[in-house]
Amino acid sequence: MRNVTYSMGVSLDGYIVGPDGGFDFTTPDEEVFRSAIDEIRTVGVHLLGRRLYETMLYWETADQDSSADEPDREWTALWKGLPKVVFSHSLSAVRGSNTRLASASLADEIERLRADPAEGDIAIGGATLAEEAAALDLIDEYQVRVHPVLVGGGRPFFPRHHRRADLELVGSRVFGSGVVISRYRVRH
Fold first, then answer.
1. In whole angstroms, what is the distance from residue 162 CA to residue 134 CA?
2. In Å, how far are 13, 18, 86, 96, 144 from 152, measured between CA atoms?
3. Mean pLDDT for the chain?
């Protein structure tokens, strides 16, 4: 059965977006970006909320930018080839390679995708979507990419008002920039 993984960059004080709505503190250096490329290779389908979907539209054409380097082109090729499902109450259509609007609830989409014999994890991106998945006990692994910055508020990585989840550390890595990636499996 395919695992559901929630992975995002976060400040040391636990926010994926700062109080001003910005997330520039998560911009990866070359080493961290290479790790993200390796991570996306393990994904079979990516579930996105509307805001993250709109942010990630950049990668549909990033390879056409004359300033794109080889890692940018590699990420773009992987992203364009990756099946993506967008959850939104306000969008009636989506664009982008291999992208579709969710036709069922989050729980139903995940159940169908888990049963699919396709390779790769089911990745969830976007705090609101991940919060819903966590409340439904659908997340199998959290991958937390902690950036060495305190932003003082904003949108938290972890929901503040949901049930307890016991976790087991299954891996971590420290980068030269001070970014630390930790992987935690949920104990169901």
1. 8
2. 7, 7, 30, 34, 18
3. 94
- Asked if residue 148 lies in contact with residue 27, where contact means CB atoms within 8 angstroms, the answer is no
The dihedral of CA 7, 10, 13, 14: what is its sign? negative
- Positive or negative, the Cα torsion across 75, 98, 186, 26? positive
Q: Write down the pTM of the prediction.
A: 0.92
- Residue 89, class by beta-carbon neighbours within 10 Å (0-12 exposed, 13-18 middle, 19+ buried)? exposed
How confident is the model over 32-45, as a mean pLDDT?
A: 96
Mean per-residue pLDDT for 141-147? 97
User: Which tokens go with 55?
Assistant: 């942010």
Which tens digits make up the pLDDT trace of 50-107? Answer: 999 999 999 999 988 898 899 999 999 999 999 999 999 999 999 999 999 999 999 9
Residues in the chain: 188
| Residues contacting 13, CB < 8 A, separation 6+ | 150, 151, 152
**Residues 139, 6: contact at Cβ < 8 Å?**
yes
